[in-house]
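tool=predict chain=A
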Amino acid sequence: MTPLKLIPLDDAVVFPGMPVTLPAAVGDETRVLLIPRQGSGYAKVGVVAEVAERPRGRRGLASLVALHRGVPGAAHTDPDGVLRVDVDERPDVAPPPSLTRDLEREYRAVVEEILELRGDDGRISAFVRSITDPGALADTSGFSPDLNFNQKLELLETLDVVERLSLALRFQQDRLAELRVRKRIRDDVESGAQKQQREYFLRRQMDAIRKELGENEGSIAEEYRKKIAAASMPEAVRQQAERELSRFERMGDANAEASMIRTYLDWLLAVPWSKRSEELLDPQHAREVLDADHAGLDDVKQRITEYLAVRKLRAERGLTDDRRSGAILTLIGPPGTGKTSIGESIARATGRQFVRMSLGGVRDEAEIRGHRRTYIGALPGRLVRALRDAGTMNPVILLDEVDKLGADWRGDPSAALLEVLDPAQNHAFQDHYLDVALDLSHVLFIATANVADTIPGPLLDRMEVIRFDGYTTDEKVSIGRGYLWPRQVERNGLTPDDVTVDDAVLRLIVSDYTREAGVRQLEREVGRVLRKTATRVASGDRPKPIVIDAAAVLEALGRPKFFHEAAARIAVPGVATGLAVTGVGGDVLFVEAASMAGKSGLVLTGQLGDVMKESARIALTFVRSHAPQLGIDEQMFDSREFHVHVPAGAIPKDGPSAGVTMVTALASLLTGRPVRGTVGMTGEVTLQGRVLPIGGLKQKVLAAHAAGLTEVILPERNAPDLDDVPSDVRERMQFHPVASVDEVLALALAPSALAMVA
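tool=predict ok
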């Protein structure tokens, strides 16, 4: 250990081989220790430096030459008051060349590339190439101004030569990557500027060529002027187009904004301002077209016929067109009932163009109103694009899945549709991109939805709702025979001569393999049967024609998927058959009740919503409060717990029409009288036993009919709604309008009592 005078360095790191000039008092010392300050202390490693020239005068500078690293030890003050430290001197020990050869080569290559990027004149590169000692080569990184204080300190404190060279290489590689990125950015900027300058000169040359040929910018503007004149735009729109055209002429085609103006003018010209389809105002022809395309749906067909009849009378009698008479039809019903496809039939029946706008999942209000032109890439809304695609101002526009509109921070599309679907406002609809009034009053809007609950109230108020309640079995068979079967025969490469089927087999597919309000699943099953047939035909196994019978259906579709199980399910007391409406149409629900010893209470399972939970509590309260009238021992409620369950627990259920079913299930359980297997019921109850009206009666009756039930108990106030039920279903079923729960129990419970359930 060598005692040397300590000279601290502030914000500087000295490496071996580096000449240093310091305003330090070195006295008579020949060697000193230069060590950087680090925070409130000193670095772990310093540099032993030799004094080459002492300072002259008070303010002179001492010249020193750094020799090698030194590790400071104990510090002490000599009798002259000089701070000294014991230094463990660490000159570099050269490692075997095999350990450093590759590192040296790569380090020199990286440093030379850095120097090349920085524009070195070759002197520094020559200096680096002249260094043969690996430790000294690594220390050259400390000479670089690109390393920060902490990086230099880390390099100084690395005593092992191989580790130090690796660390220096990593620092220089990071620096090289940064310089490459900077160069790429600089080159991109320069190339962009050069490209812009080149385009400027090319445009000037094009201008000169056009001028010589008599084709200058005025010809482009003149072309737009002719198109604007031929478009027969409304006066306000024409003035807007001419203002934008004047701006284009003033700024010239070379201006960056010129392309935006041309795009805007192109969109203005794309709107068919003066074009209208010649409307067919023949109600009888329209009804024939609709009947040919769709079975059933009499409400929709009748409404379209009425719309055309009114338009025909007004036209024949010379009455001015009333903008507020536009029809906004909204078809609400389960999937697969033909809501979307009937839009095309309406367009064909009225002689109009047809455009479909899918609104499912749309969350951005700009999809309806368009983007303002201040945004890059702005476009008009979907309505403007629909008019462009239709090529007329009076098409049929189908707003599909309007109940699935979303809303987020980008706005509420349903609010934008309020103006579109309001006949009192849509004659002056304002698209943000076009920024001119657009007359939508001649458009026939048809909206579709599965449920009305998710459509905002103000939007629903502007719509004329027509319900699609599904098809009867006979209607499904008729649709299968007239529409689905021919279509699937063609799609599967067959001809009518290749395969035949009778109505009994179609009825088998409808009843045993589908349970839906529409016919979408029916078409899939028919397609599966015909694919099997197509395989036989393609393989040469083809009696002509192939007859599809029950055995062929069983082979193609497997075992039946649906059964008429109502009678078997309610053969024991405590089970009742209810009717409900879901998002896919009517359905049959079985309500099960059981009791067990325990504290008085009610357990509800089956993912019931709040409304159905309240119905279950009301049902138990009613049965308990009317126990004597129902022939139930009141002591049966003491120390007993009741459990009400609606199967298919993975499906959430809610609605105000399960009250009578729950009362019947509990009464059946406590009286021991099973519910009649042919009866389905619907209705809500009060604590006094009154049966309240419900909605969706037609869908519920159709579901009961499809499930094999022959009797339906319904609220008395819903009796007029039976007129909506198809006549063939009404003839096959018996309906019992009731006003009180007493009537429900008298009709639903079997007359013979079984053993009392304790």
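The chain is about 45% helix and 20% strand. Residues 2-90 form a domain with the Archaeosine Trna-guanine Transglycosylase; Chain: A, domain 4 fold (CATH 2.30.130.40).
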